Amino acid sequence: MKIVIVGPFYPLRGGIAHFGASFAHWLGVRGHSVFPISFSRLYPKFLFPGKSQEESGQALPSYTITATPIIDSLYPLSWLRAAEHIRHLQPDVVVFTHWLTFFVPCYATLMTLLKKRTHAKLIVLLHNFKPHEARPGDAFLLWLLTRQPDGYLMLSESVKADLLAVQPKAVCQVSPHPLYDIFGNALDKHEARRALGLSMSQKVILFFGYIRKYKGLDLLLDAMPALIKLFPELKLIVAGEFYSDEQAYREKIKSLGIEAHLLLETSYIPSEKVAQYFCAADCVVLPYRAATQSGVVPIAYHFELPVIVTNVGGLSEVVRDGKTGFVVAPNCADALVEAIKKFYDLQHTIDFKAHLRAEKQKYSWQAFVEAFEQLILQLEK
């Protein structure tokens, strides 16, 4: 098939761009012709508190397909030009990557024009349906998003339920988030820790990704004093850029007296350094207040690292409690303390790596692409 994917691609940064690149790559491996259409401007400043919207390092292997950056999210004339560009490609399928309602007016415009001018099936790839942080107008924009598509591909049952609550007749296919294989092979733990100035005698846990209120880093910080009493050598790595009030977090760290037990790397982590942080850690903690799914879990699984997640959204769908990690109640620092203690108490009893190696087989890109193909076949019946 000839497939157009609309969404962010390299050199734009972040998990959505990583996902799009890998999806395009593996569609190509399956023999499809893929045409990524990206953004010349992605976010306006009010939606992007970070320092740069582009990767600072080199493109990784899955970025071998070059995207055409012709959509300006703030300039509707560019949407019309993009629709005309896509029409000339004569695609069989156009995939729209959805993760934020801000882009719905652009996508809805493109879909309206493409419905009139092409015979392409219109698919929305839902990283989430409802936004993690609600804004005025979201309900209308989500309704608008569901007016035109022929089908939907999503990464969790939680997202499917959110979609069906708005569009009960939606044709959809669920396939879990595949493993990210673009960050290279695992590093030796000694090497990774040495690079970060950590010793092998320390217990090290990792919080990774953009720091936003819904991700619950404050709860993990609240858990640290009790954890330090249990494990005086404990170190928490916080690796990710602040997208909410940085000063409030720094004041909390100071008031809790845990500065010496934190390694803060609060700039965007370049792709080529991701392995360093995961391979230095014993486990990854996702203390989220809300979630649909997370790209952090597939990275952890790629590096065969256990995860401790809260029971929100689709996170518990991909964690085998007591085997690939632990699932705990949300909004509770004490539950995080108990789970992290349990992990260290059992890490030499439970063969987490063996369970992770078995679980990894479920999350291949081939399986994800096949689910996409099944959705297209379903629409053609």
UniProtKB/TrEMBL annotation:
Species whose genome carries this gene? Candidatus Thermochlorobacter aerophilus
| Cytoplasm as UniProt keyword | no
SUPFAM superfamilies associated with the record = UDP-Glycosyltransferase/glycogen phosphorylase
The molecule here is called: Glycosyltransferase
- Keywords assigned by UniProt, alphabetized: Glycosyltransferase, Transferase
Task: List the InterPro entries hit by this protein, alphabetically.
Answer: Glyco_trans_1
Q: What Gene Ontology molecular function terms does this protein carry?
A: glycosyltransferase activity
Annotated Glycosyl transferase family domain residues: 189-351
Quote the Pfam families the UniProt record gives: Glycos_transf_1 (PF00534)
Name the domain of life: Bacteria
Q: Which residues cross the membrane?
A: none
Give the matching PANTHER family. D-INOSITOL 3-PHOSPHATE GLYCOSYLTRANSFERASE (PTHR12526:SF510), GLYCOSYLTRANSFERASE (PTHR12526)
